[in-house]
């Protein structure tokens, strides 16, 4: 494969296309400054304005959220697993019916494999524009987003209505639900009562991995962060590995599914028979299936990288093993 062909599978941080109308809370005060990015896969955006960088199926989706300080992403859930790592800034994640069951603060490089079946939200509590990178299970991401009822009600007060077809309609722009399309129904009290409300103590040990702990663990060998035998034990349909300067190797390896490389710190050189490419923090590269390649730091200094590969397992709820 030529470098030109590979370049079509690299999304540079500086080339990311933001969407400010991706979700139902796009007009809600406190959430109306969000920028959403769909990097790999169709994602779960509710807006036709969302740009998809790489549409090739991988068995999971890669996206991102960029937010200025004090901007919040509203309480929601997905039908499949969702994991985030912080690329830039300081973020507070919170969860539960009203967002008060528990919370955790993540720093740059930390990763959170959020328990499924609970409403979750997040906000940038840093002092500058922040960015978090997201991994969502499944090629179709399970059919969209489930919003806490109050989010849908608040959005309607500010002109946005979500249809049962999963699309947004902006009444401020004189948009109406099409004939035969009803508004997205609110989740019933019975459905809400079935949702667990795990505390911070319940969630932290099995769902959060800290960057500097991963750096230490990956000093000699790559660390499986999310996986059946990972630091965070789960089978969400994908596996996440963490690689540092000490655990990178020139040996070329291939996977039967596409491999996604996402540098956290430092510049990384990806080499395959026929070419090479260099990645910087915030870049995302999709390596084709069965393409033998190596990835090593190309400069001195701190170097770390997340690698994501599908496992072929069903993209479903968090595994309870």
TrEMBL record:
SUPFAM superfamilies: RmlC-like cupins. Residues 69-132 form the Cupin type-2 domain. InterPro entries: Cupin_2, RmlC-like_jellyroll, RmlC_Cupin_sf. Pfam families: Cupin_2 (PF07883). This is Cupin domain-containing protein. It comes from Cognatiyoonia sediminum.
